[in-house]
Each structure stands twice: as structure tokens, then as C-alpha cells.
Amino acid sequence: MKLANLEYTILSKNGVVQPKKVAFVGSSPMPLTSLIMASHHMKSTHFDNFDIDGAANLMARKIVSFDAEFEKRMKFHTCDIMEVKEKLGEYDCIFLATLVGMSKVEKMKFLGHIRQYMKDGGVLLVRSANGARAFLYPVIEENELMESKVLSIFHPTNDVINSVVLVRKPIF
Ligand SMILES: C[S@@+](CC[C@H](N)C(=O)[O-])C[C@H]1O[C@@H](n2cnc3c(N)ncnc32)[C@H](O)[C@@H]1O
After folding, report:
1. What is the pLDDT of residues 76-92, one digit of tens each?
2. CA spacing 20 to 30 A to 168: which of 13, 77, 90, 116?
């Protein structure tokens, strides 16, 4: 919850307040970030949650089905994000979960793919790590962000483990 609230603070400081459509890539069986965003911050936003694991999405749909309003605004898609192309252009904001890409090489592949298909002017929030926390999660460095405009890089020093990297795809 602290991570999601931190992410919203960073997004809103960078002008992303009520995006129309958000994608969460690697939403897991417990789509907590989307739920916190939808309930506390982005109260009219539509969320598309992507996960490669059908069982994860079954569980996530079950959790969301208890609330009719969330169910309308929150959809779950089972696929490898590498297979999602033009659809990525629909989102004002895309979250990339930490463990989509377990190694630096894999993570760079996902970043490059999303960067290619996301809309011009859209923002991408990448969960990363810093220092000893790199034992848990792959680290993304500023110079690896592929011609995107870096809006913010935040390394928490409290019990929030993930760093938060926010970039915008330039409008050409
Ligand atoms: C552990 S969860 C993420 C939760 C955590 N809050 C985070 O930020 O990392 C990572 C999810 O990413 C999904 N995932 C991994 N590779 C993927 C891919 N190529 N496309 C879509 N989802 C993927 C996994 O199935 C898993 O449910």
C-alpha cells in the first residue's frame, strides 16, 4: 500500500492525476496496486491488468468480482506482454511490475517492447531497486531508459523495497 501511494504521489507531481486508461503489466493474483489506485486515487480510470499466468488472473477476477464498480473498471488479460502491441498505444500510463523480467537482459527486452508500442506522450512507471535491494529485484539505471524523458527516479529508504522510475515517451 505504501508503494502504491508513493507511486501516486510521484505520478501526480508529474501531472498524471486522472488518466483515462492505465495498464498494469504483471498484475499478479492480488492486483493490489490497481485496487488502491482505483479506490483511493484514480476514481474514474479504466484499468487493464496483464498477466501471463491464467491462474493468477482467475484469482484476481474473483477478488474484484466482490465489487460491481471495480468489476466494470478493471479488466484482466492473460497474455505475454511481448504479444501485446498496438493495444499498448491506448494507455496514458503503464506500470511495469518488478518481476516482469527476472534478469537485466529480460527486463530490457520488456522495456524496449513497451517503449516501442506505448503512445507518444504516455508515461511508463518502472519498478526497480537500489543498493542491496538489487539482490531481490533487477535494477534499471538512468542511462538504460532508451531515449525516454526521465521524470523521476526515487529510491525509498524506509521499508518500501522498490525504487520507482517514471519516464515519458517524447512526442515527436
Ligand atoms: C510477482 S508479480 C508482481 C507483483 C509485485 N507487486 C511487483 O511489482 O513485482 C509478477 C507477475 O508478473 C507476471 N509476468 C511475468 N512475466 C510476464 C510477461 N511476460 N507478461 C505478462 N505478465 C508477466 C507473473 O505471472 C507474475 O504474476
Report:
1. 999 999 999 999 999 99
2. 77
